[in-house]
Amino acid sequence: MSIVNVLLGVALVWMSVLACFTTLATCPYSYVTNIIDLSGGLNSGITVLRKTDLADCPKNATTLNISSNSIQTLDGDVFDDFWNLFSISLSYNQIRSFPSGLLKNMRSLKHFEANNNALEALEDDLFMGLLDVPLVNLVTMDFSHNNISNIGSNVFHADMALILNVDLSFNSLVSFEPWPYIPQTDQNDGDEVIWNFQNNFIVNFTNNMNWVYNLIEEYEHEIYLQNNQLSTINKDMMNIYNHGFIGDYLSEFLTFHLNITQNPFFCDCKPYVYVKALHESVMFYLQVDEHRFICNGPSNLQGIDFMHDLELDEFLCNLTDNCPTGCFCQERPHSRDLFVDCRDASITSLPLMLPHATYGNISLHLDNNNIKYLTKTNYSHQISNLTVSNNQLTSIDSSIIMGMKNLKYLNLENNGINYIPKELQLLAFSNIIISGNPLLCDCNMTWMAEWMNLSPGAKDLQATCDNDGESLSISTITEDDLICSYDKIIIILSVTLGVVIGLVAMVIITAKRCPYETKVLMYKFFNIHPRDKYKVDQEPNREHDAYISYYQGEKNESCQVRQWMKKVLLKKLEKASKRRYTVFCYERDYTAGRWQAEEVMENMAKSRRILLILSPEFIADKWCTFEADRAEYAHINSNGVHGTIIYILWNKQMRFQLESEPWKSRLKDKTVLCPDDRLFWSKIRYELPVKTMRIVRRNETMPFSNGITKEEDNEIVNNRQNGMKGTTFPASTDSLDPSVVIVDETSVGIEVSQNI
Length: 756
Fold this sequence. Notes:
Layout: H1 2-26, E1 31-32, E2 35-37, E3 48-49, E4 63-65, E5 73-74, E6 87-89, E7 111-113, E8 121-122, E9 140-142, E10 150-151, E11 165-167, E12 175-176, E13 193-196, E14 204-205, E15 221-224, H2 236-239, H3 249-255, E16 258-259, E17 265-266, H4 272-279, E18 295-297, E19 317-319, E20 328-332, E21 337-341, E22 362-365, E23 383-387, H5 398-403, E24 409-411, E25 432-433, H6 447-453, E26 464-467, E27 470-473, H7 479-482, H8 485-513, H9 515-526, E28 544-549, H10 556-576, E29 583-585, H11 586-589, H12 596-605, E30 607-614, H13 616-620, H14 622-637, E31 645-649, H15 654-657, H16 663-667, E32 671-673, H17 680-687, E33 693-697, H18 710-721, E34 740-744
Parallel strand pairs: 2-4, 3-5, 4-6, 6-7, 7-9, 8-10, 9-11, 11-13, 12-14, 13-15, 15-16, 17-18, 21-22, 22-23, 23-24, 24-25, 28-29, 28-30, 30-31, 31-32
Antiparallel strand pairs: 1-2, 19-20, 20-21, 26-27, 33-34
């Protein structure tokens, strides 16, 4: 049995050798140490590489080289059977794009070469495996010398932790996205990750993938961007990745490890922030030759290293947008201002618009023009330096000066100005030029002497003014020199008289236009009231100041009326008012067992005023109509001398419901108020009785009680007859003799006001 087994084993070995020789005979490759080398070995007629073209190749190969052929297209499954590939080279073909899922089984892939093809884009799923599991073992990728202009935002994903070299040089990229910062590589492994973007057409930095700078340590990348089309280095390059960054832009830039030398830089004001930081840093002296940034323009700076060889005041931006015709506009970061030169521009006023002032300061030069007035503009608050010499100014509006909150220097030389506004003393006199103006001596300019003497070295310290043909030195002028004391008195009297006349005129105009409101306000503030009109208030049988009539039903709106009447109106009149009134409210004050109509008529007759709260339910209710009729009867009985009735509309909409009869006639010539009206409570108090009292004894022969002697009563009567006021009465009427009653004092002329 052992001999048979040996023979069988030998037969199997020979069969394996024969199969191997058969494979070698059918697959055009060099098979040495698991390498399939088809470089230049495919039939020149093969432009589409299919799975069948590699069917005879060993599936356990680790390296596949198909470079230098005529391949234009690959099937998506061409590499499906090669699970062990570490390296794939497709260089020097004519491939335009990679099919989806081309590398889905390449879980061990480390090196991928596709340089020198016709690729136009790299799609998001290029390095994604089965079930969207990323290929995490990639180390090098070469896509150089293609026509790539677009790279998906997920081609280089965060799980590529082993990546060391990516070559995308000599392509057609026009912007730089933050691809190199996506892979989460180990920052402690000591390896530099090289990303080569040289020789593209990159003109700016973009962030369409919305990546945010979030690392504290410096990146371990080296990113080559030489020989692109970058024309500037500015703050936006960093802000686009670190929004709202405020700090050292140079350090931020160095953190990104970007090599942007050998680009056609235009040397304007934009690199200033980086150059200034470099000049102030020890980095200015390190690796100078390796960090040369050469100006490609403007022509006067061409060939100069702007990082090391330009002075800071040479970084300038000439602006044309919104720059006025005939003017020159320039941003100057070193002096932190916008320089606007409009000299000799034949302009007659300040320009309406100027370019945006990045630093908030504007140096505006308007000399040698035809400007007559300084006007307010939307940039007035940004003007720090203003020169308006040799113009036609005759005066300076103080409000315009106050609007120039940032003003540091002002040149008004050689104009026609007679007076200098006092607001200019907010500036040091040494920062103002006023010579060449026909200044007039005036009492309002004596402040200038002290102001000028605070700047002993000022240019215009010898400025003079004209005083009736005599030239006086402004720095030494005094009020006595100009005889200003009488002027002050005249000015004060004139101002006072003007204010008084103005107030009187306002009062007269208001009284004519709003006579009723004027009376109400006079009563409210000065307690002035035409009491002689109110004859009804003199009748001794009037026990109540007011009778209130309203709808007492249970409807929704009527409930609101009742609540307002009880919690607001009664509280205001009986408790919270400056003058407390006695009010009869049937629902609260009725006498049990009495006929309602009889009690209503009786208490209306005893009331000085009748308040009717008109609501939709009130005007529709028969009983309320009865009360309104009785109120009309009470009003008529008063001979119409005074408006006994006060109508209160529940809301303004009630006016429309009362335009028809009989309510239209009832409201005619009556007092009609509404809680929505202005001064409503003041009007109510104006219409209610003036609360003045006097004591009259019905029967002087009746004995006195409760501690008041006849002598005390005689004293009260005598004082009243002598016209004395302010007599003190007992706190409660219960302590008075029954023969004493309280009536209105209006007819007698003795007032005891109850102001509470």
